[in-house]
């Protein structure tokens, strides 16, 4: 009796299948790394904005309490202080203090604070 011989199927992967799988793994690794990097950078910028808002309120209070003293800021920040005397709408003179807050790493745009002191 003749029995038909069965063709045994191969149990291995082809080179194309292996390369496609490696390519997908590499794509997933790169996209995950970029997402983690973006999240870390966003967190760092959000922390700088939070520190800037706290620093602005303390600069405002210091300028109102001691307008003649130069403002002091923590390391990593710079403040440019200028004073102008201008006429107010009621024909009185007013002293404007202009504070420009910048971070040393240039991660965010400068923040300008205008403070009016009515007694020049």
Low-confidence stretches: none
Strand count: 3
Compute the CA-based radius of gyration.
32 Å
State the strand order across the main sheet: 1-2-3
Largest sheet: 3 strands, antiparallel
Give the N-terminus to C-terminus distance in angstroms.
Answer: 118 Å
Strand content: 15-25%
- Work out the count of structural domains: 1
Q: Estimate the global geometry from the Cα principal axes.
A: rod-shaped
* Element-level helix/strand string: HEEE
Structural class: alpha+beta
Give the helix proportion (percent range): 40-55%
Count of separate DSSP helical elements: 1
Average pLDDT metric: 83
Describe the structure.
This protein is an alpha+beta fold. It has one domain (15-117). It has one helix at 15-65, and strands spanning 77-87, 93-103, 111-117. The chain has a three-stranded antiparallel sheet with strand order 1-2-3, covered by helices on one side. Strand 1 and strand 2 (93-103) form a beta hairpin. The longest helix has 51 residues, at 15-65. The chain is rod-shaped. The mean pLDDT is 83.
Outline:
This protein has 120 residues and is of the alpha+beta class. It has one helix at 15-65; strands at 77-87, 93-103, 111-117. It has one domain (15-117).
């Amino acid at each position: 009796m003749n029995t038909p011989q069965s063709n045994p199927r191969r149990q291995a992967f082809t080179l194309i299948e292996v390369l496609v799988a490696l390519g997908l793994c590499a794509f997933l690794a790169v996209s995950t790394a970029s997402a983690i990097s973006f999240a870390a950078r966003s967190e760092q910028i959000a922390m700088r904005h939070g520190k800037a808002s706290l620093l602005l309120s303390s600069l405002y209070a210091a300028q109102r309490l001691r307008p003649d003293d130069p403002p002091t800021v923590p390391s990593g920040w710079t403040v440019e202080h200028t004073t102008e005397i201008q006429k107010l709408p009621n024909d009185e003179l007013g002293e404007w203090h202009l504070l420009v807050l910048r971070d040393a790493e240039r991660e965010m745009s400068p923040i300008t604070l205008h403070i009016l002191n009515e007694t020049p």
